[in-house]
Write a structure and sequence with these properties.
- With about 210 residues, this protein is mainly alpha-helical.
- It has one domain.
- The radius of gyration is 21 Å and the shape is globular.
């Protein structure tokens, strides 16, 4: 008797990383891309306050276009995660809860630091410093996230945002008052969008392959 073996001809997806990337990680990165895209657009709103009406309109249109393209890329990641075939081991439930708990602690810490910064600068009559200071706080919060999610790219994000904040403070304090909002706004937007793009480029799932 000749035995026959059924061959599964359905397409399966492979992650680019040689160590494999599971569906949970893909979904997490997709969320990171979306958050970076939307927050970048939020910073565009900050920049527009210091620009002429024409420049503000152009920046807004460009920002919406960039944000939309990044979100489309993130949705492709989510579809790839839902397609299955990404067999990286899923962390235990307790491990996921620990990561989520630390994430929310970092996020709450960021929110508290921003609130304190706004209050102190507002009360001291230095409200023009607020956008740059918030940019620095947002940058610093990426440092623990880089280790928590094992995404080294976030260290570059932190450095970029802190550099933008420092340059703004130096130039603003030396007389370039017109830069207090446009510089941190555009600088932070570009940094966050670059981070989202970096996540997409380093999480390429590739086309379906036959096995």
């Amino acid at each position: 008797m000749i035995k026959t073996t059924a061959i599964d001809t359905r397409p399966r997806y492979e992650a680019l990383h040689t160590d494999g990337m599971g569906s949970d990680e893909l979904r997490g990165r997709a969320v990171g891309v979306i958050v970076g895209a939307v927050m970048g657009l939020t910073w565009v709103g900050v920049a527009r306050d210091g620009l002429s009406s024409v420049a503000a309109s152009l920046v807004l249109v460009a920002g919406v276009a960039v944000c939309a393209m990044l979100i489309v890329g993130a949705l492709r990641l989510r579809r790839a995660a839902a397609a299955g075939g990404l067999a990286a081991p899923t962390p235990p439930g307790a491990g996921r809860e620990k990561v989520q708990r630390r994430f929310w602690l970092v996020t709450l810490g960021e929110g508290a630091a921003i609130a304190a910064t706004v209050s102190v600068l507002g009360r001291s009559g230095r409200s023009e410093w607020i956008p740059a200071a918030i940019c620095a706080v947002v940058g610093l919060h990426f440092i623990p996230l880089a280790r928590l999610f094992d995404v080294p790219l976030y260290y570059a994000t932190a450095a970029g945002l802190c550099l933008v904040a420092a340059i703004t403070m130096i130039l603003g304090a030396t007389g370039a008052a017109a830069l207090w909002r446009p510089l941190p706004g555009l600088g932070a937007a570009l940094t966050l969008w670059a981070t989202s793009l970096g996540l997409l480029l380093t999480t390429h799932t590739g086309p379906p392959v036959r096995r």
